């Protein structure tokens, strides 16, 4: 796709994120910090500059850390900070999003943009689209159903993974920050996630079609492979590719076993099994189900899972259906609850 078409699409989607999701008003202050080390970073920075002509703008590779921190200090609570990053910015002891939230600032982060290949730019830009009618209907309906669940089945071709346990309070990442202290986060958005209250009550087999590789890229396989889970631990992957076994070996060497913690439901209709981007952090919003391997899940505290653990590797299921207490909530590549609009992944 030509630059002009990509830029026009990016501006339309970024405008909706700024105004509809974050509620940023034109009279509020804004700061854009960007770099030009990748085509996607340069393109998004150009889009943001056009949409926010009065924003302070700093090229990370030309400004000093002190200049950037002074620009942040000049902002007032409820102002907006945007980081457009080919990798991830490091500012000495400044912890980026956490520090910005502590100051009451709204935040949009686009990290690791250099991981996206040229042929993935249109997909990433489509994933930035914000449809409040869709996200704010499906997201809360899904959370409500998961929060009162007692048994969940993740069904793939010839396999079932059964969660015979209630789930933790589900978290929303749907661009609706009503009643929340922190406004914003990493984009693209579109996810509802939880984990089992009793991890050892997760048993069965699941088919995976992609996983986070050791370089944080998405490794998609030609055919889905099986992963056998017993009492919340991935114990076997008999037909998995060698790269997946390398990931498993790293987790087991550090943590002993490969726990399965997160149960994530991606809502982003621009990202599907067939339409992917290379960055695992962006692709995590993919329409469908992802799990995490490893003992780390910072959003939930559990006895026996100290915070020192460092592995949280996303894996993506080739699902046919998800049932909650016998009711289908995902089938035919769409969510079946709460949606006033098309919930399929058509772009």
Q: State the helicity in percent bands.
A: 25-40%
Q: Stretches where pLDDT falls below 50 for ≥5 residues?
A: none
SSE-based structural type: alpha+beta
Total helical segments: 8
Biggest sheet descriptor? 12 strands, antiparallel
Q: Got a strand count?
A: 17
Order of helices and strands: HEHEHEHEHHEEEEEEEEHEHEEEE
Strand portion: 25-35%
Write down the overall geometry. Answer: globular
Q: Report how far apart the termini are.
A: 15 Å
Mean pLDDT figure: 94
* Cα radius of gyration in angstroms: 20 Å
Entry summary:
The chain is 25% helix and 28% strand.
Describe what you observe in this structure.
By secondary structure, this protein is an alpha+beta fold. It is 25% helix and 28% strand. The chain is built from eight helices and 17 strands. The strands form two sheets. Strands 5, 6, 7, 9, 10, 11, 12, 13, 14, 15, 16 and 17 form a twelve-stranded antiparallel β-sheet that branches. A five-stranded parallel β-sheet has the order 2-1-3-4-8, with helices on both faces. The protein is globular, with a radius of gyration of 20 Å. The two termini are 15 Å apart.
């Amino acid at each position: 796709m030509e630059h002009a078409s990509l830029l026009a699409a990016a501006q339309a989607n970024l405008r909706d994120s700024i105004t509809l999701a974050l509620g940023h008003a034109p009279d509020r202050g804004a700061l854009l910090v960007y770099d030009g080390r990748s085509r996607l970073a340069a393109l998004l920075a150009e889009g943001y500059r056009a949409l926010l002509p009065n924003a302070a703008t700093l090229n990370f590779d030309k400004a000093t850390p002190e200049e950037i921190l002074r620009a942040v200090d000049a902002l007032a609570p409820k102002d907006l900070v945007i980081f457009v990053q080919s990798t991830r910015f490091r500012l000495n002891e400044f912890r980026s999003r956490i520090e910005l939230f502590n100051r009451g600032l709204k935040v949009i982060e686009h990290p690791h943009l250099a991981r996206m290949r040229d042929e993935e730019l249109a997909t990433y830009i489509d994933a930035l689209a914000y449809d409040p009618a869709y996200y704010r209907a499906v997201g809360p309906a899904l959370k409500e159903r998961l929060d009162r669940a007692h048994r969940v089945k993740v069904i793939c071709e010839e396999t079932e993974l059964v969660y015979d346990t209630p789930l933790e309070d589900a978290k929303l990442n749907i661009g609706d920050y009503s009643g929340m202290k922190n406004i914003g986060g990493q984009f693209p958005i579109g996810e509802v996630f939880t984990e089992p209250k009793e991890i050892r009550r997760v048993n069965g087999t699941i088919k995976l079609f992609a996983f986070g590789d050791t370089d944080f890229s998405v490794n998609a396989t030609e055919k889905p492979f099986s992963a056998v889970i017993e009492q919340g631990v991935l114990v076997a992957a008999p037909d998995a590719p060698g790269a997946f076994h390398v990931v498993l070996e790293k987790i087991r060497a550090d943590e002993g076993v490969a726990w399965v913690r997160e149960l994530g439901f991606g809502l982003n209709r621009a990202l599907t099994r067939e339409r992917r981007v290379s960055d695992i952090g962006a692709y995590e919003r993919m329409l469908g189900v992802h799990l995490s391997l490893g003992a780390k899940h910072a959003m939930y505290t559990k006895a026996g899972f100290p915070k020192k653990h460092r592995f949280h590797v996303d894996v993506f299921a080739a699902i046919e259906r998800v049932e909650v207490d016998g009711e289908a909530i995902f089938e035919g590549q769409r969510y079946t609850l709460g949606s006033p609009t098309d919930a399929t992944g058509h772009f």
